[in-house]
Amino acid sequence: MPLGAVVAVYLVATYFVCGIPFGKIVARRNHVDISHVGSGNIGTTNVGRTVGAPAAGLTLALDAGKGLLCTALARPVLATLCLGGDASALANGAELGWVVALVYLGCIVGHVFSPYLRGHGGKGIAVGFGGALGFSWEVALGLLVVWAVAVAPTRIVSAGSCAAAVSLPIWSFVFYRPSWAYLAIMCAISAIVLWAHRSNLCKLFRGEEKRFSFHHDGEPPAASGRDGR
Q1: Helical (H) or strand (E) element with 115
Q2: 79 Cα distance to chain centroid
Q3: Any residues with CB less than 8 A from the CB of 206 and at least 6 apart, and which?
Q4: Rounded to an integer, what distance in angstroms lies between the CA atom of residue 81 and that of residue 214?
Q5: Quick check: helix, strand or coil at residue 2?
Q6: 113 close to 124: Cβ distance less than 8 angstroms
Q7: Cα separation, 164 vs 129, whole angstroms
Q8: Is the per-residue pLDDT at 97 higher than 50?
Q9: Phi and psi (nearest 5°) for 87?
Q10: pLDDT value of residue 227
Q11: How far apart are CA 160 and CA 128, in angstroms?
Q12: DSSP string, 121-178
């Protein structure tokens, strides 16, 4: 089958799978409309702040899982349908490695611009980590290290998220010396994640970003300021 056509179909499927707003679904099961509490964002951080740790853990697992599923299946599916089962050309740094990077971009776009929420969505961190695990555990580990180093002393999740996003093309280059197309896609992913964090970046620069803490039972969730969109 023609590679271009199969990649196009796979990208559309990835967009719709990664657009599933698991944070909103999990919060609703806990009788909370996540769009109207806290930052109004559907991601793990807002779920943790407004619903609690168990809901945040489930949201994290589901969001990371959908990214992992889409990128992990990309190579075997595309290789089977288009390359006679040989996935070597789709490896990181190989001739067609940029194709899997494009699938990774599809994961981020689906989550940040969810088709189920009229183009709104999360900020791309959990799905980004899961997606990275699916095609490169080395890059995923690098992202996690950068995130942890930034968050551990500050408890400001957005600082770690933005730092990890900036490091994505750097890790990709360090580990694989890939093509310019591959690096351009990774830079696009970083840009989208930073754009999704634009309000957080403004607060960071003003020294107003809140430190993270979990919501506890009995506490009323704060009304949304709609700053997370």
Answers
A1: none
A2: 25
A3: none
A4: 45
A5: coil
A6: no
A7: 10
A8: yes
A9: -95, 5
A10: 43
A11: 13
A12: ---SHHHHHHHHHHH-HHHHHHHHHHHHHHHTTT--HHHHHHHHHHHHHHHHHHHH--
* CA–CA distance, 90 with 110 (Å, rounded to integer): 22
For the record, the structure tokens of 214 come out as 């979990």
Hey, CA dihedral for 10, 111, 47, 134, is it positive or negative?
positive
Confidence of residue 226 (pLDDT cuts 50, 70, 90): very low
Burial of 207 (0-12, 13-18, 19+ CB in 10 A): exposed
Cα separations (Å) of 167 from 181, 187, 193?
A: 17, 10, 12
Amino acid at 15: Y
CB contact at 8 A, 215 and 50 = yes
- Tokens matching residue 192: 């989208």
Closest CA to 18 of 43, 54, 48: 43
The pTM of this model reads: 0.90
Give the mean model confidence (pLDDT) for residues 70-84. Answer: 96
Q: How far is CA 188 from the centre of its chain?
A: 13
Q: Which two tokens stand for residue 13?
A: 């499927």
| DSSP string covering 11-63 | HHHHHHHHT--HHHHHHHHTT--GGGBTTS--SHHHHHHHT-HHHHHHHHHHH
Place of tokens 């964090």: 197
Lookup result for tokens 């990214």: 67
Task: Give the Cβ contact number of residue 45 at 10 Å.
Answer: 25
Q: How does pLDDT run across 178-203, given as a tens digit for each residue?
A: 999 999 999 999 999 999 999 999 99
